[in-house]
Amino acid sequence: MLPINGDCDDCVPTYLKSSPSKAIFSILPFALTFLFVAVIVHQKVYPLLSSSTNDKLNRSAFSPTSPHGEASAQSAAYEKRISKRISSVAFSATIALSAVLTELLLCEISNSFNPTTRKISISATVTSLLCLLVLVIPLLEIYSLISRLGWRFTGGTRASALAAWALEVIGFTTFLAGFWFVGVLLPDAGESQSKAGANLVTACLERLGITGTSMMALLSGFAAVSAIWQNLTTRARIVSEADINRKQAGLDATLDMLSAKKARLKQLELKVSDAPARGFFQKAMGSIRGNADMQELRTLELEVSGLKTMSASLHNSLSILRSRKASQLRSSTAIGRATNLVSYVFSCYCVYRIGSIMINIIRRTLYSNSYSAPTDPVTNVIALFARHVYPSLNQAAWARQISFLLSGVILTASFNAVLQTFHLFARFLPGVLQAARSNIPLLISQIAGLYVISSALLLRNMMPREVGGVISEALGTGVLQPAWTEKWFDGWFIGSVVVTGVGIWLSHKVKGDGVWDDDTWDTDVEMGKRL
């Protein structure tokens, strides 16, 4: 006899039997988490990150000397404020959604809260993160890059605005094409492509997963080498107040020169624009003999560009000196000595992790698919604890998941060393430092979102059927498998380690031992005074 009416409840899965009111009430903790994290990040974290660029440097860029220049400056300032507000909202929302998704994953592991609530919340959170990571944040980053190159979206000429928007469209289209092309790298790419049309969200999630895995491998490899280099192989000299004052004086002098050059440049631009039209004969003679004002204008533009690069690098060096001074003062305390000890132990773990991954790659190459890579002791202990909590868990699969999670720990624990190494490389490519500095909040939120989504996709294939049904249903059944992801992560990790190590060695050979003492820009200040 077929069940009717209420008897049909026996056929309904357990996580679908809860009442709507109870499900809505269960959403409140996740909503409160989102609001709390978003407000804290918006009010405390974003101003700290966005102020990493020296405000004095920005203010000294130019003080308008004409009504036209003042109107243009006001329009540019208004455009920058709007862009900054949108970026702050995107940054706060991405970090908050990443925190909520982490909370949901923990609830999924512990099987806490209402299953229907977890399913709705995971679907809404993942979809929102997908929109931010694929649409909003790339658009804002491309917009910032175009603005830094000097193109104006509003307030300038019509041709300049059209060119800026055309570059924005071309840049975003290129990004989307590259993002979709990433799917070719996935295992069983043909199957993934056939499913893409049926479920666009799943296809995008798989591409975000492989992108996040590659990015975390690159960053954790860079961080591991940076921690080893900073803590085990270098000995920085003692930073005195005289060193900081000398660097500050050089920065102030450079900013004063930059302000004067910018003012003179604007005066010349106004003079050239207000000059009467010349005849054909005058233009021909001017092209042969050259125009004094135009020659001075081009010279000033080169000088201003050089002073901008120099001032940004001096500000960067000053920040490093102040950070090193604070670290040295902290090292004289008990807490500082304990922190240094932890840093040394962590650096030794980074050495072990690099060595173990290299051995795993060699053995995997020699023994092909028959080789199962062992895990390091830290990963193994955590996996054993997880299996103790849930005996049905696959310890080998969870070891891979925990190994990926530890890459985020490596990046976070060696954040200061990462900044030091990044600033070292940025001296050879100062434009990269300026572009990255303007997008630091967006980059951090992008990394956090990719990291959490990649963790969720790996977790989807490791949960027991009685526990992980909700997350599997919310994220779909993809082709990103843990074993393949481990091989992919190891390859990118070792590649990052090799490139970072070679880069540090080359920079050390080119600049010499003084590269870590921030003395290399002092002679440039003297050169700047002669511009």
Keyword list:
Golgi_pH-regulator_cons_dom; GPHR/GTG; membrane; mainly alpha; transmembrane; single chain; 19 helices; 531 residues
Counted beta strands: 0
Number of domains: 1
N-to-C SSE series? HHHHHHHHHHHHHHHHHHH
Indicate the structural class: mainly alpha
Determine the mean pLDDT: 74
Q: What's the shape?
A: globular
Q: Give the quaternary arrangement of the chains.
A: single chain
Number of helices: 19
Terminal CA distance reads 95 Å
What percentage of the residues does DSSP assign to strands (E)? under 5%
Low-confidence stretches: 1-7, 60-69, 513-531
Estimate percent helicity.
Answer: over 70%
Rg, Å, rounded = 28 Å
* Main beta-sheet strand count, sense and barrel state: none
